[in-house]
Amino acid sequence: MRDKILRELEKIKAEDLYREMPAMTEGAGRYVEIGGLQYLNLSSNNYLGLSGVESVREEAEKALRQYGTTSGASRIVTGNYKLYDDLERKTASYKNCERALVFNSGYAANLAVYTSLCGRETHVFSDKLNHASIIDGIRLSGAKHIRYKHNDMADLEALLEKYKDVKEKVIATDTVFSMDGDVCQLYRIVSLAEKYGAMIIIDEAHATGVFGRGRGYAHEIGLADRVDVHMGTFSKALGSFGGYVASSEVIIDYLRNKARSFIYSTSLPPAVVGASVGALKYLAKKPEIGGRLLDAAEDLRFYLSQIGFETGMSMSQIIPVVLGGNKRALLAKEFLLSKGLYVAAIRPPTVPVNTARLRLSLRLDVLDEMDRIKSAFKEMKEAGI
Asked: Which of 21, 163, 191, 237 is the most buried (most CB within 10 A)?
C-alpha cells in the first residue's frame, strides 16, 4: 500500500500536478506575504474585501465577547444561540425566501441538500462543471446522476425528454462557475424545469454578494422566485465562513430534521456567525458594490482579450487566463510573482486536461491597482509566456 502511494505521488510530480500549501502569513487580505515579500492578492475569494471592513470585524468581536470561542455542540443540542437565529432571519430576508438554514461550510450545505432531498428514485441532471460538493452530494444520496454538457441546454432537454416519465427530477447547477467565471443558462433551465416537472437547486457560492445587488444571480435576472432551493456561502464575497440554504419553510424544516451534515456537526463558533451578520448589515447599506466589481472585471477581460489572452466565456469577477499546459501555467504564475502579483495556477483535475490556467479573482479592494495588473499581463505576453 505504501509503495502504491509513493508511486502515485511521483507520477503527480512528473505531470506538474503536485500541490503544496503556499507558505504565506495571511491569504484573505489585499496583500499576501511570502518570504517577507508582499504580493497583490488576485487569488482570494474575498471578492468584496469584507474580511477587512471594520464594522464586520466589530460584529465578530462582539459575538466573541458575548458568547465565547465555541458553540459547544450541534445546533439541535446546545449549540444554538440567538445570533444564529438573527443570521438565519437576515439570510432569508436577503434571499427573499421564507426560511434559511446555516451550515458549517458550503460543502456541508450541498451534501445536506442532495442527501436529504434526493434518493434512489431521484434523477439529478447536473451541469458537467458543477462544483465537487454538488457531485459528492448527489453520489452520497444514491440518486441517478445524469451529467449534461456544460451550459448545453439542447443536451439537457434531450436528457429530460429521455427520462420524462421519471417522477422525481432535479436540475442542479452553479450559477457562477468557479474555474471559468461564466454563468448558467438559468432562463432556459427554469423553462425546462417547468416543462418537465423538475425541481431546481442552484449554488450561488460565487454570485452571493456580487450579483443582484448582493442577492445572487437568480435575483440579478429576476428568476429567484422560480427556483426551489438557493444554496450559497458566507465564505467568499461575504468575507466570513459557512454556508446557507434558503427556501420554503417546508424544505428548511425538512433539512433541519434530515440533513446529517447539519445534525451531526458542532455548530459554527460565535465570532464566525457574528461576522456573517456584520457582512449582511454592511451589504444592506452598500448593495451597489458588487456591481462596481463586475464593471471592473468586464474592463479587465476586454483588455486581456485585446492583448491576446483567452478568457473564455467569463461574465463575472472570476477571470480565467487559459494557457493550456501545466508547465506554462506554473511559469506564468512565477512571472507574475516577479511583478508583485499573486495569481493561482489551476491544473487538472480541477480543470480539464490541456486547459491549465491562471485564475484571476478580481477584488473590490484592488481596483486602484488595475494599471499595474494590466501592465504585468502585457509584459508576460511580450515575454512569450
From this structure: 237
Contacts of 301 (CB under 8 A, 6+ apart): 311, 314, 319
The distance of Cα 180 from the centroid of its chain, to the nearest Å, equals 12
**pLDDT tens figures, 167-226:** 999 999 999 999 999 999 999 999 999 999 999 999 999 999 999 999 999 999 999 999
Residue 32, helix vs strand vs coil: strand
- Judge contact between 377 and 307, C-beta under 8 A: yes
Distance CA(134)–CA(183), nearest Å, equals 16
Per-domain boundaries in the chain: 17-46+288-382, 54-285
Q: What pLDDT shows up at residue 15?
A: 84
Residue in the block written with cell 508547465: 327
In words, the CATH class of domain 17-46+288-382 is alpha beta
What pTM was computed for the model? 0.93
Asked if 205 and 237 count as a contact pair (C-beta separation under 8 A), the reply is no
Fold of 54-285: Aspartate Aminotransferase; domain 2 (3.40.640)
Q: What is the largest CA-CA distance in the chain?
A: 62
